[in-house]
Amino acid sequence: MATAPGARGTARGTTDIPQPATDRTPLVLSGATVVLPTGPVEAGQVVVDGTRISAAAPENAQVVDVSGHYLVPGFVDLHNHGGGGASFTSGTVEEVLTGIATHRRHGTTTLVASTVTGDMDFLTHRAGLLSELAEQGDIAGIHFEGPFISPCRKGAHSEELLRDPDPAEVRKLVDAARGHAKMVTLATELPGGIDSVRLLAEHGVIAAIGHTDATYEQTVQAIDAGATVATHLFNAMPALGHRAPGPIAALLEDERVTVELINDGVHLHPAALELAFHHAGADRVAFITDAMDAAGFGDGRYMLGPLEVEVADGVARLVEGGSIAGSTLTLDRAFKRAVTVDGLPVEAAVAALSANPARLLGLADRVGSLEPGKDADLVLLDEQFEVRGVMRRGTWVVAPRLG
């Protein structure tokens, strides 16, 4: 809970931070600018009791001065293929956990693991493995990006493995995920696309329009059928045209749609990001990473599904053809860029990184904002918006040392 206990001070010396979920000592993080759904609160505080945020501090709570910092909710990533050198599509359980841990250190406390195009047997087997991690609470679910996408807009997906979105095959993937399928990206103009959207909506799975060559009219039809997300808006879809506006106009104008944006300075020009915020509004934008193995790991050669990727200067491109192949982004960098380069208010960046994706995933009762009763998932940022601490469910993933 955020309050205004008094004048904002300066931390002195070094403060050792306890581990609330381990020793159960309640913790009061005091003096920071706390970013709430209603806006920033100067000299506020957040009370952590066990694994949750509490409305009031118990008498035995330890008070830690975090003045000169921001406290924001843990980030929620809807669309992430890996990191730390590990792939969510092909890595072992241990490797997937390495990738998850990499993104947690950068503030992503809730993550949906995304797969890339593969054959159906491989993807259903992969869904089983990732479902186990969802059942353990390591990930928030699974996003299938491909194989039901357009060969005209395939991006970094293997064309020979693409297929039309047959509802029976879409259902096979959903069933293989054992209740943990959160999103499926479709080119809804393909045969079976609209019926597949309806099937996903009936099963409580997000139908996302992406890697699509759809017209404006076809996109409107898909939204009316139940599609609610634009997979990395602007990328892997026809450009906005004044006679043929294509999917971008339809996705931006419809209040039922949340638009994903990759805010890494490579995938989008700042004017495109501004256009999306202007037309969709801050409540309908979700920043994603679309990260691949190299996120948090470095340049070099990687595999994205069956395709080889070269990462140079932090930009991932297919070795053959040169298409952009996901990103090396982490959400802390997306946050910093949003505020310092794009000029967004801090509360708009928080909405795009936490509240909006949490609501879309049906998790807003637990994560996405710093409110009493929710999981103690939070990120401590300094005045330059660099990560200085990350807490997940009351335990420090990155324990700050202040002073």
Radius of gyration: 21 Å
CATH class category name of the largest domain: Alpha Beta
In terms of DSSP E residues, the strand content is 25-35%
According to DSSP, the number of beta strands is 21
Count helical runs.
Answer: 10
Give the overall average pLDDT. 92
Q: Domain count, please report it.
A: 2
> What class would the helix/strand composition place it in?
alpha/beta
Q: Biggest sheet: strands, sense, closure?
A: 8 strands, mixed
N-end to C-end Cα span: 24 Å
CATH superfamily of the largest domain: Metal-dependent hydrolases
The shape is globular
Report the CATH architecture of the largest domain. Alpha-Beta Barrel
- State the oligomer: single chain
Q: Which fold name corresponds to the CATH topology of the largest domain? A: TIM Barrel
Poorly predicted ranges (pLDDT <50, ≥5 residues)?
A: 1-22
Classify the helix fraction into a percent range: 25-40%
Family: Belongs to the metallo-dependent hydrolases superfamily. NagA family.
Biased composition (Low complexity): 1-15
InterPro entries: Amidohydro-rel, GlcNAc_6-P_deAcase, Metal-dep_hydrolase_composite, Metal_Hydrolase
Region (Disordered): 1-24
